[in-house]
Amino acid sequence: MTLPIVSDPFPASSPELETLPAIRLDGVSVRYRVPLDSSVTLKEAIVRRKRRRYVEHLAVDDVTLTIGRGEVLGVIGRNGAGKTTLLNVMARVIQPVAGRLRIHGAVSPIIDLLGGFHPELTGRENVLLRGAFLGMSRQAMSSRVPGIAEFAEIGQFFDAPMRTYSAGMIVRLAFAVATSIDADILLIDEALGVGDAEFQSKCSARMDEYRARGVTFVVVSHDVNRLASMCHRMLWLDGGRIRALGTPDDVVAQYAGNQYAGNQHA
Amino acid sequence: MNGQTHEYDSASRPPRALEELLDLRAHGALVRALVERNLKVRYKRSAFGFLWSMMNPMLMLVALSLVFTRAFAAATPAYPVYVFPGLLLWTFFAQTTTMTGEEMAAGELLKRVRFPKTSLAISTLLTGMVNLTLALIPLVLVILALRRPLGLALLTLPLTLFFTALFVLGVSLIVATGALYFPDVMPAWNMLLPALMFTAPIVYPASILPSRLQVLYRMNPMTIYVEAFRAPLYDNTVPAGSFVPMFAIGVVTLVAGWLLFTRSVDDIAYRV
ipTM value of the model? Predict the structure, then answer.
């Protein structure tokens, strides 16, 4: 059974889309070269003229998408559907092989929580380092340090090396840093469900603050129902392609139907 | 939130080498933050701190001095003062290129965070320059102990060091580009470095080489930097004739490395 692909990318819920886009992707594709055998050494490459064998994997395949300012877009799909790759394209960690990407506004990615943190540095030092990676000036970041320490609630660990942190503490600190800079666009990968209930409600409160300010969200999660409750639109990625794009109810229904159909076959 | 513009259009990007420069400017705090990271990580957890990074050239100095002071007495009356500056500059060259290459080859940061990747090479270079500057203290102590002349020629050291930095950054970026593509480049480079050291007149005075080998050591580009760095420290002479070639070799190497590296580094994401 094949489901119709929703073609209308601009449902009534977001009228500002065409006039004020935050992110526009036109025919964006990302291709990975996946090596099939173990890596070819320089010697083999030169002496035996051995070429490494690759399969080309289209992780994102011809995606055209406009995300409006202030929109909350949820991205769902199975493992390997290209969700994280798509976020990484928007964060410009990965350059697409084809297509055009336009971004209007400052981006704060919460994709890779560990990226840029160093285990030997303290939380405080890592905050300044992460800020520098995000393009913040030293002064601007220093003034945010107290607020970040307070939000992350890691107490005296803030001045201890990060290798002593629990996973939850790292997540809290990463979240506090990413949401401390005045971003226009937040890219979030699975970070929502982490932390205890109290911290989660704090995160939700901060998200609401951001939404009220008109910050654009792109959120990837496997928690489909939770995601549906907070999004304007949802995007279902399947094999790197857009399978469905529309209101949360529509997309969740199609996604659930497909999963049910898949289970029937199995 | 900061100095960078937040409008991006992949269809109107500047040339990659230039884009990297603009990106560095937009991440104005990054190089300094990375230098601090390098220094803290290196020195924080050890009681002897930066002495560890000096151990290698120091031990080399002692060993070489014991062996060669008498052998090279005719050509180099104060052998320890002759050998020490060369060892320090070579250590700077070797450590900077190796660390840059290894950090790029590890690749974790490159695939996870968006930032100008040349900042890793530049911060490693600056970290090495800090270490080298600190190492001038024991060097001066050795010079004073052996009662060698110290004078105004020392004022040429910052200029020589600047030209050396251009060259070392260029080589770092070239080695790093190779390391991005082939896992064998770093082991090969690590193996090659000690051999390369002996093609430059660091351990031995150039005058002991037979005339048909004189051309050979001139072919090592580090030779001119080592000699210019050593001249004011060894006998208070100004290496006047070296500045133009040092600048030229440095700029050409850096431009080549910059173009090569910035052209290749975005490719890393495809090679998972």
Answer: 0.87
